[in-house]
Amino acid sequence: MWGGRFAAQPSDIMQSINASIDIDRRMAVQDIAGSRAHADMLAECAIITEEDNEAIQAGLDQVLEEVKSGAFPYRVELEDIHMNVEARLKEIIGEPAGRLHTARSRNDQVVTDFRLWTRGALTEAQSGLLELQKTLISRAGEHTDTVMPGFTHLQTAQPVTLGHHLLAYVEMAERDRGRMRDAAVRLNESPLGAAALAGTGFPVDRDMTAEALGFDRPMANSLDAVSARDFALEALAALSIAATHLSRLAEELVLWTSAQFGFATLSDAWSTGSSIMPQKRNPDAAELIRAKAALIAGQFASLQGAVKALPLAYAKDLQDDKRLTFEAFDTFGLCVKAMAGMIDTVAFNKDRMRDAAAKGFSTATDLADYLVRELKMPFRDAHHVTGRIVAMAESEGKDLSELPLQSMQTVEPRLTEDVFSVLSVEASAASRQSYGGTSPVRVSEQVQSWKTRLGLE
Ligand code: ARG
C-alpha cells in the first residue's frame, strides 16, 4: 500500500511489532461502514464517478459477507484492518478500489472505526448493567424486611435491611450507566475527512459522512480529530468505575459466603470445589471480578500513559488504544454477567443475618436516640450514658436487649420497661424512616420506584 518509496520488505520482527490485524479485525464491520459512507460522499461531491462508487459499494457488500461468514482472508503482512479491507476490495473489483482512499488517511479512518466500535460497546455495557440492576431490584424486593448488620469499618454499626443494601448497588449502577451515556454523547463526533492531520484539498462534505455514520457532527479541528483519544479514556474511566462497584459487591459476596459470616450461599452454578478439600464451595467468580476490576483500571492507566506525552497529531503509539479498550470491554461484559448470575441465584440466610445484626450492640444508637426523645437529654449526654450501659452489658457478656432493666437503671434511674421497645433489631431498622433510610417501608417504596423507573412489571 505504501511500497512505492521502498526497495525492500520490512523485517519479520518489524512486521510482528507493527501488525495490528489480530486486534483491529474486530472493527471490520465499522471499517466497511466508514468506507461506504466515504465513497458515497466522494461520488456525491464528484470526486469519484458514480460508476466507481457503484463498483466500490458492490465490492464492499461482498467483503462484508466474507467478514460475516468467516471467509475473509485476513493477512498479517497487510498490517491492519484498513489495508486488509482495501486490498481485498482491489482483488474483487480491481482499479476503482484504488480511488476509495482519496481524501482520506488511515489516521482519520482508524479513529472513525474506533469511535463507532466504542459507541456500540458503551451501549452493550449499559445493557449489561441494566440486567444486573433488574436482578438486584428483584432480590431486594424479596428482602425489604430482612434485617442484617450494617457495618462501618467492618465493625457492627446499626441494623439495616438486605433490600436496602442491595439497592445501594442499583444506585451505583445507575450512575455508571449515566457516565457511559454521557461519554457516548461526547464521543459522537466524526473525525472522518480530517485525513492525515491537516484536512484535505478535495471538496469533501464532512457533514454527509458524519450523518451517514450516525455522528452528531464532524469534528471541528482536523488535528484534534486524528489525535484525540479522550473518548476512549472516558469510556475506560466509566468502565473502571463501574468495575470498581462490581468489585465491592464481589468482595461482600466473598465475605458473606464465608463460614464465619454465613450470610449467603452461592448456587452450585456459581461455586467451585477444591481438588483436595472436599468441603469447599469457593466463590471464584466473585474473586475474579475483584481481580479483573484491577485489570480494567490498569487498562485505563495504560492508555492514559500512552497518550499523555504524545505530541500532535497521530503517532503509532495510538495503535495500542484498541487492544486496551477491547480487552477492558470484554472483561467488563463478562464480569457484569457473572455478577448478575451470582446475585440471581444466591441464597440468603435470614436467620444468620438477623443473629449477626443483634450482636455488637447494634442498637446502641437507638438507645441514645430514645434517651434524647423520652428523657429530653442532649445527644452528647445520651451518647455517654449509653456508652456506660454498653460497657456494663459487655462486662456481663450480654446483648443490650438481654440486660435487666435494674442494671440499666443503675446508670440512668429514669429508664422504664418501655426502653426494650427500641432495643430489638427489627424495631431499630423499622424506625429509620427518613428519606433514603433503611426501614422496610422506605425500601419497599424504593423497590417500587426503581421498577417504575426502569419500566419493569
Ligand atoms: N493500524 C493503525 C492504528 O491502529 C492505523 C493508522 C495507521 N496510520 C499510520 N499513519 N501508520 O493506529
UniProtKB/TrEMBL annotation:
It catalyses: 2-(N(omega)-L-arginino)succinate = fumarate + L-arginine. One of its GO terms (biological process) is L-arginine biosynthetic process via ornithine. Gene3D superfamilies: Fumarase/aspartase (C-terminal domain), Fumarase/aspartase (Central domain), Fumarase/aspartase (N-terminal domain). Residues 4-298 form the Fumarate lyase N-terminal domain. InterPro entries: Arg_succ_lyase_C (IPR029419), Argininosuccinate_lyase (IPR009049), Fumarase/histidase_N (IPR024083), Fumarate_lyase_CS (IPR020557), Fumarate_lyase_fam (IPR000362), Fumarate_lyase_N (IPR022761), L-Aspartase-like (IPR008948). Residues 361-428 form the Argininosuccinate lyase C-terminal domain. Keywords: Amino-acid biosynthesis, Arginine biosynthesis, Cytoplasm, Lyase. The keyword Disulfide bond does not apply. Its EC number is 4.3.2.1. Pathway: Amino-acid biosynthesis; L-arginine biosynthesis; L-arginine from L-ornithine and carbamoyl phosphate: step 3/3. It comes from the Bacteria. It is found in: Cytoplasm. GO terms for cellular component: cytosol. It holds the Pfam family ASL_C2. One of its GO terms (molecular function) is argininosuccinate lyase activity. Belongs to the lyase 1 family. Argininosuccinate lyase subfamily. This is Argininosuccinate lyase. It comes from Henriciella mobilis.
